[in-house]
Amino acid sequence: MLDQVTKVHDESRQGEAFAPGTTDSQTYSKKFYIESYGCAMNFNDSEIVASILNKEGFGATRNVEEASLILLNTCSIREKAEQTVRKRLTEFRRIKKSTPGLLIGVLGCMAERLKTKLLEEEKLVDMVVGPDAYRSLPSLIAEAETGQKSVNVLLSREETYGDISPVRLDNNGVTSFVSIMRGCNNMCTFCVVPFTRGRERSRDAHSIVREATELFENGYREVTLLGQNVDSYYWTSDDDSETVTFAQLLEKVALINPLLRVRFSTSHPKDITDEVLFTMAKYENICNYIHLPVQSGSNRILQLMNRTYTREWYMKKVERIREILPDCGLSTDVICGFCSETEEEHQETMDIMRFAAYDLAYMYFYSERPGTLAQRRYQDDIPEEVKKRRLAEVVELHRRQSEQNMKNDVGKTFKVLIEGTSKRSEEHLFGRNDQNKVIVFPRENFKKGEYVMVKVDSCTSGTLIGTAVQ
C-alpha cells in the first residue's frame, strides 16, 4: 500500500526476536523462535501465540539455532515488510537443511494472501496460519511434523482471543498493549486489512478490564487499547443484558487505578464521539492524545478512498476535540499521490495540515498493494517522482509545524511516566507526557515506572529536554 518516510511502526523493533519480558521459571522441552513485523497489533498477536505455545511445551528463545519451530509474524501493509520476510524465510530454509525436524511457519497478514506461493511455489515454509487461526497452532504443528504442509487461514466472525492471557514479550515492564477488537469494516480502498484480518468484532469488556488490571498489579503503569478502529468498539453480552461502548470501556479501564495511564489507537474520524472526548476530559489518567488519520485534504480523493467524511467534517471534528480537550495532542496519517490526485488536491492536503498543525504525522506516498479495492478499481497513475516530490513538501511542512509545537512547550511543566534510561546517556531517564511527547531529564534518584513532574527547559525537533521539579 504505502512507503513511509516518518515511521508509524517502531522500526527499531521490526523483525525483533521475542523472548519473555519476565523470567519464566518453567522448563520447556522444545523451543520456538518468533520474529514480528508491522504494527502494534502484530506484536500483540505474537504474545498470544507465545501463550498458546507455552501450554504445548514450547518455550521462547532468541537463539534461532536451538529452536525446533521458527515463526514469522508478518505484515501485508507495506511492500518493504514483505520483502524482508521473504529474505528471512530464504535464510531460515538454509538452516532447515542442516537441522532435521525444524519447522518454519508464517503467521499473520501475509499468510492468507500468499499461502500458495509460500507453500507450493517457493516451498519456503511448512505452515501458514492466519490471524484468526492461532488456536489451531498445536494441531497444525502436529500435522507439519508428519511431513504434511499445514494451513489455516480461515477468517472468523467471533475470534477475539479474549480468554487468552498474552505472554508479555520483551517490553519495558511499564507500558503495554491490550487488544480490544479485531478486524475492520471500513473498506478503505487503499487498505488490505479487512481482507487479511476479517470483519470487525469487539472483545468481551470484562476480559479487557481483567487483563489491564493484571498488568497494573504486575507493575505496568500504562496500557494502550488497540484496534483498527477503536471508536467503533461495541460489545454486547451473550444474553443481551449488557452493552459497552468505547467511551464506557475507556471509563472502566481508567477506574482500575488512577496510577494506570490509558491510551488508545487508532481512531477513525467518522466514529470518535463527544462521549469519548468528555470521558477523556473527566479522567486525568486518560491521556489527552488522539491519532486521527486524515489521509487526504481533498473531498474527491477522500471519496475515492472511501473514507466516508469530507474535509469540512474532519476540520469540525478537530475543532471539537480542541474545544473539549484544549491541550490534546493530535497525530495523523497522510497519503500523497493517491490515484488521479491533482496538484490542486495535493495543495488541499497541505492546507489541512496547516489547519490542524499536528504534533506527529505518519506520511507516505501511495504504492499499490495487491488485494485492495484500489488495485481493482483505479489506475495507479501518478508518476513516482511526483509522489516523492509531494511527499517531500508534506514532510517539510510537518517538520516546521512539529518543531514549533515543541518550542511552544518550553517553559511548561508536564507529568511524565518514566519508561527507562535515555538512549544517549545513562545519566538521563526518559518518559512521555500526556500528549505522547518524549521528555528526557536527569536521572537523580527516580526509577522506571514512577511519575515525575518535569519542567521543559529546551527541545530538539523530536524531544523535550527538562528538569524534574517538586
From TrEMBL:
Subunit structure: Monomer.
Domain TRAM: 407-470
UniProt-annotated binding residues for [4Fe-4S] cluster 1: 39, 75, 109
Assigned GO CC terms: cytosol
Highest classification ranks of the organism: Bacteria, Pseudomonadati, Bacteroidota, Chitinophagia, Chitinophagales
A GO molecular-function descriptor: 4 iron, 4 sulfur cluster binding
A Pfam family matched in the record: TRAM
Family membership noted in the UniProt record: Belongs to the methylthiotransferase family. MiaB subfamily.
Region named Disordered: 1-22
Catalytic activity: N(6)-dimethylallyladenosine(37) in tRNA + (sulfur carrier)-SH + AH2 + 2 S-adenosyl-L-methionine = 2-methylsulfanyl-N(6)-dimethylallyladenosine(37) in tRNA + (sulfur carrier)-H + 5'-deoxyadenosine + L-methionine + A + S-adenosyl-L-homocysteine + 2 H(+)
Protein name listed in UniProt: tRNA-2-methylthio-N(6)-dimethylallyladenosine synthase
Chief location of this protein within or outside the cell: cytoplasm
NCBIfam families assigned: miaB-methiolase, MiaB/RimO family radical SAM methylthiotransferase
Gene3D superfamilies: Methylthiotransferase, N-terminal domain, tm_1862 like domain
Annotated positions binding [4Fe-4S] cluster 2: 184, 188, 191
Annotated keywords: 4Fe-4S, Cytoplasm, Iron, Iron-sulfur, Metal-binding, S-adenosyl-L-methionine, Transferase, tRNA processing
Domain Radical SAM core: 170-404
Note on cofactor: Binds 2 [4Fe-4S] clusters. One cluster is coordinated with 3 cysteines and an exchangeable S-adenosyl-L-methionine.
SUPFAM superfamilies linked: Radical SAM enzymes
Start and end residues of each MTTase N-terminal domain: 30-146
Location(s) in or outside the cell: Cytoplasm
EC number: 2.8.4.3
Biased composition (Basic and acidic residues): 1-14
Cofactors (names): [4Fe-4S] cluster
Domain of life from the UniProt record: Bacteria
Functional note: Catalyzes the methylthiolation of N6-(dimethylallyl)adenosine (i(6)A), leading to the formation of 2-methylthio-N6-(dimethylallyl)adenosine (ms(2)i(6)A) at position 37 in tRNAs that read codons beginning with uridine.
Coiled-coil boundaries: none
